[in-house]
Design a protein that fits this description.
The protein is of the alpha/beta class. The chain has 30 helices and eight strands. β3, α22 and β4 form a beta-alpha-beta unit. The protein starts with a helix and ends with a strand.
């Protein structure tokens, strides 16, 4: 389901909730209206009335998920986690892909001390879409809020371990099962959390270096943090002394990994929190040892999967030569830092609902069609399209073989068979002798030596009547990026891991000046930050330039992708009362001049090619 479809479904729910309800208790009251009333009472903390309505709903529909979930939340509030867990379990039996119910069940099982079930439910919640909101849920923890407050109290000066963690050390942080699940599942893109986790990593390094007695919870937390560091590619700042201590611990691990000498799981996890295990010599010998479950999961992510990706490289075809000098430089960047390093399939719930017949593909989605993904990166985009259009034949090309290998592994894991991956330069695609019903190239053309030259090639591959989805950087929206890149150049920062880390710490210390950067998810991974601020080639365009290209090539503008903030369209319509036309690029240009932050991510839009 795309963003537009999700928004339409949400709008239908909102409209349903706003309809006037018949008198409570009358025979004509629908379950939807009763559920809205129960939610209203719950929000007002009038639990008795909310519970009564939920019970009336369940008498009519025993598996009503919203009512079971609300009753579970009210049981939680009363401290009855046993009853709450039962209610959430019933709700999940009716809707096993409900992320909120899994999250709520995880909280109750954690309160009951059933850590295995809590971990399972938290993991499912994140896999079903809660990964996008993981930071906000992590920050709700009073323990984590307390740590962040202590750091803020001295910022930008450092805090000591005793000041931050007190006599209990890392134990309270390590016991947070949702935090551990989130660390394993997704990049936690938040400045305060990153600083806290940096302190936690340094304290784990001290514990491992001193060979202190190990605690299972501390080891599990260390493994989760090491997986987070691998996902985000080690962007955290570190002191010189910390770097030297991490290097010494790595050397201790590498003395003879193939020998029978015991290696403490904490040592393995802490080394992996500073260095990717697959890059260490003789690292495969670590797979031959017995490890606790958390370390086994860490080795899977940092050793087994990278080895699988190396094997995938030999199976990927090369469709075109890569000759352009800029293309070669761009390829080198994404070979070193494949982007993005995604982990969670955003359409897990969508795919499950379709598999169970809860949703049915439209005729358009069921059609056989040829789709080109031009610049597929690590495959997230192509994989989503393949799930929405199961009968389509996808060709997904990218300039980076490392990115394609990552995409192939993720595609195989999901069991998808309708994607063909190949290495190619968009500038050379005109020679492949194929055409397509639909072409998507989002966030790619502006990294070419000549964006419009690449776009012309794509237009030549689009069949008459076909559609094209394009994403391009905005000149107006990226003024802060231009300013940051100028600052980077002035300070002679290079696109190396060490310099990117130092640059990020400078930006943290000047947070007020760089709020848009600090709020960007890409800032929190090495590949994302390099793509955002250190890209070897970046062009920025204007709406008039895009409009001129469309006119020149007979393409019809069909509209921008729906905005995350619905206020954008409200403002647009208000600026052009009675005449607002969402397909009028002249109006959009005038709107963007007045609201330059509108296309902060990029212009993402669809165009059509005239049928002959």
């Amino acid at each position: 389901m795309n963003r537009k479809e999700r928004r339409a479904a949400s709008k239908r729910q909102d409209e349903s909730a706003k309809r006037p309800s018949p008198p409570f208790g009358s025979a004509g009251v629908s379950i939807a209206d009763l559920a809205a009333e129960a939610s209203r009472f719950y929000g007002m903390r009038r639990f008795n009335e909310a519970q009564e309505i939920c019970r009336r709903i369940l008498a009519r529909e025993p598996g009503h998920v919203q009512s079971l979930n609300l009753l579970g939340l009210m049981a939680q509030a009363a401290g009855d986690h046993r009853a709450a867990a039962k209610l959430f379990t019933k709700a999940i039996a009716s809707d096993e892909v409900n992320a909120a119910c899994h999250y709520n069940a995880g909280n109750s099982y954690q309160a009951l001390g059933n850590r295995a079930k809590a971990t399972t439910h938290f993991g499912k919640a994140l896999a079903l879409g809660m990964d996008a909101r993981a930071v906000s849920f992590v920050l709700q923890s009073p323990t984590i809020a307390g740590y962040i407050g202590r750091i803020a109290g001295k910022w930008p000066l450092p805090v000591t371990t005793v000041e931050l963690f007190g006599a209990e050390g890392l134990a309270p942080l390590a016991r947070d099962l949702f935090l551990r699940a989130a660390l394993e599942a997704t990049t936690l893109a938040n400045m305060q959390l990153e600083v806290l986790l940096g302190y936690a990593r340094a304290e784990l390094l001290r514990l491992a270096s001193n060979q202190d007695p190990e605690d299972d919870e501390i080891v599990a937390f260390a493994c989760a943090l090491a997986r987070q560091c691998f996902i985000n590619e080690y962007p955290y700042g570190q002191t010189e002394v910390e770097g030297e201590r991490a290097g010494a611990l790595r050397d201790r691990l590498l003395q003879d990994p193939a020998s029978g000498v015991a290696i403490a799981p904490l040592t393995l996890a802490v080394v992996a929190a500073y260095f990717p295990l697959h890059a260490l010599p003789q690292a495969d010998a670590l797979l031959c040892r017995d490890w606790p479950a958390a370390a086994v999961g860490l080795l899977k992510v940092q050793l087994r999967e990278p080895r699988e990706e190396m094997a995938e490289r030999g199976t990927i075809a090369t469709l075109t030569p890569i000759k352009n000098e800029v293309s070669v430089e761009v390829m080198r960047q994404y070979e070193e830092n494949p982007y993005p390093r995604w982990t969670v399939n955003p359409l897990t719930a969508f795919a499950a609902d379709r598999a169970r017949g809860r949703t049915v593909a439209t005729a358009e989605q069921q059609a056989e069609r040829d789709i080109l993904i031009a610049g597929c990166g690590t495959g997230s985009h192509a994989i989503q399209i393949a799930q929405v259009y199961p009968n389509a034949r996808l060709l997904a090309v990218d300039i980076s073989m490392t990115s394609l290998a990552y995409a192939r592994r993720k595609t195989r894991e999901l069991g998808l068979r309708n994607i063909e991956y190949a290495q190619a330069d968009i500038l050379e695609l005109g020679a492949i002798g194929r055409t397509f019903d639909s072409i998507e190239s989002v966030g790619v053309l502006h990294h070419l030596a000549e964006p419009f030259a690449g776009w012309r090639v794509l237009v030549s591959l689009l069949r008459p009547g076909g559609t094209m989805r394009i994403g391009l950087y905005s000149e107006l929206a990226r003024r802060v990026i231009v300013e940051a890149r100028a600052r980077i150049a002035a300070r002679n920062y290079r696109a190396t891991a060490d310099d990117i880390r130092r640059c990020r710490q400078d930006i943290f210390r000047e947070a007020e000046q760089w709020k848009p950067l600090i709020g960007a998810k890409d800032f929190y991974s090495m590949s994302g930050c390099r793509d955002l601020l250190f890209n070897v080639m970046e062009h920025r365009l204007t709406i008039p330039e895009i409009a001129a290209f469309l006119n020149e090539h007979g393409l019809t503008f069909q509209g921008f992708e729906p905005f995350d903030d619905p206020a954008v369209l409200e403002q647009f319509r208000k600026q052009f009362p009675g005449a607002a036309d969402e397909t009028n690029l002249d109006q959009w240009h005038r709107f963007e001049v007045d609201h330059p932050e509108t296309f902060w991510d990029m212009y993402v839009f669809t165009v059509g090619k005239t049928a002959r």
